[in-house]
Structures are given as C-alpha cells and as structure tokens.
C-alpha cells in the first residue's frame, strides 16, 4: 500500500518541473517547460493541440524517457524513473484514451491495480497462503467500495469493454485510487464524456481533494471546467509555459488569448 504520510504544509510544491526538454528527432515537443504543482491543489494545464501537454505528462510519469531537465516529486528526483516506480511513490495518471482491460470484468480491472499482493508470486502464495488470501479479500473489499462510490457497483461483473466512454473514465479514476495516491494526473478527463457523468467525475475530484488532500494536475480543453474547477492554470504553447497563475489572470493574459483562446476569450 502506498505511504500516504504527508508532513509538508498544504500549499507547498508537491511536484516541481524545471527546464524539461523532450525531443523526437529534430522536434522539441517540450521545450524548457517549468512550473510547480502545489499539494492539495487542482491545477489545470491548458494549451492548443501540439503544445506538448501530454508529452510532458508522459515524461513526468515515466512513460517517456530521454528528457532533459528536472522533475521532482515530494522533494525527490523522479527524472528517468520507470512509471511503476513513480506510481509506487504515490503519483499516478489516467489517459485521454482510457486504458481499461476491455476483455476482463470491471472488478478484475480494479483488483489488478492494487499493490503488494503476495498471491501474485508463486513463492509468496506457497509460503504465506493465509496472508495471500487475506490480502485478496482486502483488495476486493476496497475495489467494491470504490465501485460503489463511483456508481459502478452494478457493473462489477460485466466486461469493461461494455462500459460507455464516461463509465470507462470513472472506472479509470476509481482504479488509480486502488494505490491510494497523493497526486493524480488526469489527461482530458472530460473528453467524450456526457455532461452528467462528467459532473460526477468532477464531484469525485473535489471530494478527494477535500477529504484526503489529493493533489490533481489535469489537461483539459473545456474552458468552463478549467475556470470553474481549478485553483491555478498553466498554459503551454509550442512546448513552453507562456502563462501561470489564477484562472482569471490566465484567461485575460494576451499571450494566452493569442496562442490558444483567440476569439473565444
């Protein structure tokens, strides 16, 4: 189980990104991006398509390597660390295109995400069978609680591939909570989600922040969501951070208007 002990004051930076550069051949998809995400906050990362937002997510969470710059999580460098090691430290992510295991039941999608299961290894299962079975029960109970919370309990035995797009988004968020993270990165959580399920997802985000102090960094194009639900907004364009501040100041920043919002501002 992830260590959720958090002794640093609320509002101190939990994630620091400094001078990150990621190249693909001669293209600098991320070009010196720098910003902090404060613990207990909901921070939105916005920008036009091709700005480097998802590539930056991939670098921060260990899905892309070979980047330059510094990435620190909870005071320790995670640059170059594999994704599973970063997740074990309490920072997890979702994807724009959900990664549900379509040919497996919803409940199995949930239980697979839980860490520290001795039954996963034949040695642990043979030497400590009681501990393995006890942990299996704990994991299933936790999974069922989360499915109930996210309104998916009735779908527990159905294949994940039968869920709607919005339900898959809810399943993905519920699944990352199996590792009890301190920080969650959401890549376009509203994309393809109907307003009702989108509203439920946002309610869960706020509840997790208020109840557990969970920190969120989200990529989002829906400006109504960004302005109404984030404490802070970071705007990227052409791989660089061009604005960083409260939602209103970023919305009225001329650089953001020119690069992203245009006439919609």
Automatic annotation (TrEMBL):
Keywords: ATP-binding, Nucleotide-binding, Transport
A Pfam cross-reference name: ABC_tran
GO cellular component, one term: plasma membrane
Annotated InterPro entries: AAA+_ATPase, ABC_AA/LPS_Transport, ABC_transporter-like_ATP-bd, ABC_transporter-like_CS, BCA_ABC_TP_C, P-loop_NTPase
The organism's place on the tree of life at top rank: Bacteria
SMART domains xrefs: AAA
Gene Ontology MF annotations: ATP binding; ATP hydrolysis activity
CDD domains: ABC_Mj1267_LivG_branched
Occurrences of domain ABC transporter (ranges): 15-263
Record's protein name: ABC transporter related protein
Source organism of this protein record: Conexibacter woesei (strain DSM 14684 / CCUG 47730 / CIP 108061 / JCM 11494 / NBRC 100937 / ID131577)
């Amino acid at each position: 189980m992830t260590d959720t002990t958090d002794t640093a004051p609320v509002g101190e930076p939990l994630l620091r990104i400094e001078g990150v550069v990621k190249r693909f051949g001669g293209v600098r998809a991320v070009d010196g991006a720098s910003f902090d995400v404060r613990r207990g906050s909901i921070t939105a990362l916005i920008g036009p398509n091709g700005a480097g937002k998802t590539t930056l997510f991939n670098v921060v969470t260990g899905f892309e390597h070979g980047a330059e710059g510094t990435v620190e999580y909870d005071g320790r460098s995670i640059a170059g660390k594999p994704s599973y090691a970063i997740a074990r430290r309490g920072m997890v992510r979702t994807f724009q295109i959900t990664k549900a295991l379509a040919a497996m039941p919803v409940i199995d999608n949930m239980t697979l995400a839980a860490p520290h299961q001795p039954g996963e290894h034949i040695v642990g299962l043979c030497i400590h069978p009681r501990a393995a079975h006890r942990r299996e029960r704990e994991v299933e109970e936790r999974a069922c609680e989360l499915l109930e919370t996210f309104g998916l309990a009735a779908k527990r035995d159905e294949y994940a591939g039968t869920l709607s797009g919005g339900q898959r988004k809810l399943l993905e968020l519920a699944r990352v909570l199996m590792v009890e993270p301190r920080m969650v990165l959401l890549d376009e959580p509203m994309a393809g989600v109907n307003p009702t399920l989108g509203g439920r997802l946002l309610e869960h985000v706020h509840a997790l922040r208020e109840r557990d102090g969970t920190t969120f960094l989200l990529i989002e194009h829906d400006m109504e969501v960004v302005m109404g639900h984030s404490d802070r907004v970071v705007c990227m364009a052409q791989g660089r951070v061009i604005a960083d501040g409260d939602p209103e100041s970023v919305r009225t920043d001329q650089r953001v208007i020119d690069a992203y919002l245009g006439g919609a501002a």
